[in-house]
Amino acid sequence: MRVAVFVTCLVDGLFPDVGKATVRLLQRLGHDVDVPLGQTCCGQMHVNTGYPREALPLVRNHVETFLDYDAIVVPSGSCTGSIRHQHADVAREFGDAVLAEGAEIVARHTYELSEFLVDVLGVTDVGAHYPHRVTYHPTCHSLRLLRVGDRPLRLLRQVRGIDLVELPSAEECCGFGGTFALKNPDVSTAMLADKMSNVLATQAEVCSAGDSSCLMHIGGGLSRLNSGVRTVHLAEILAS
């Protein structure tokens, strides 16, 4: 099986350790992993803000880069959702049937990290050890669009040494939502305040999630409170 990692632009630019952890984890499970240098942004932010034409070359590049892989693993629910639910539609909107067909093939081979581990590899115990008190925030796209369900929690429960505590009102949005946080800062901040209150109520050392974007939002708020709570991506815990 030819496996590639789509790093995502946010991870590549701001949180490279997440990409490295994803590769390290897959290698530990016995897979040779490619990280194609031709990859760029998936175009999600362009589509979500009303610029599908500007997203079209990004979709084309993504399909050309990943078409020949059997599995594309993504440490992000939101980017996985974009690849599955936006790429082919963007291609069809501008009359490119060949690109749409390629996008559908890539979409069928694209997996959010926890999906790939549980559904494709059939593992929940990845040999991790992480002796910390952790709570998990299920991000909106992974929860509602991809419906990953309890897969991340099943993986975390098998981590040796972990003290996994339930997050109150876990399914509530953290308030990031990409450009939502920029266009609706007051609402976003109020939602973040609720999320931080619930994280702090767990007395966890670490808040984890499957999307660096949500962790950036939550972590920024927690740092401004000098709470001492860290945000750590699911991939980094599983690779530990």
Describe the protein:
The protein is α/β, with parallel strands linked by helices and 240 residues long. It is built from 14 helices and 8 strands. It has 2 domains: 3-120, no CATH class; 133-238, Rossmann fold (3-Layer(aba) Sandwich). It is 53% helix and 11% strand. Helix 4 crosses helix 6, helix 4 (52-66) crosses helix 7 (97-108) and helix 6 (87-93) runs antiparallel to helix 7 (97-108). The longest helix is centred in the last third of the chain and has 17 residues, at 185-201.
The total beta strand count reads 8
| SSE sequence, one letter per element | EHHEHHEHHHEHEHHEHHEHEH
Shape: globular
For the largest beta-sheet, the strand count, sense and barrel status come to: 4 strands, parallel
Strand numbers in spatial order across the main sheet: 2-1-3-4
Beta-strand percent range: 5-15%
Poorly predicted tracts of residues: none
**Rg measurement, Å:** 18 Å
Proportion of helical residues:
40-55%
Roughly how many Å apart are the termini?
A: 24 Å
The tally of structural domains comes to 2
- Overall residue-averaged pLDDT value: 96
Structural class: alpha/beta
Put simply, the count of helices is 14
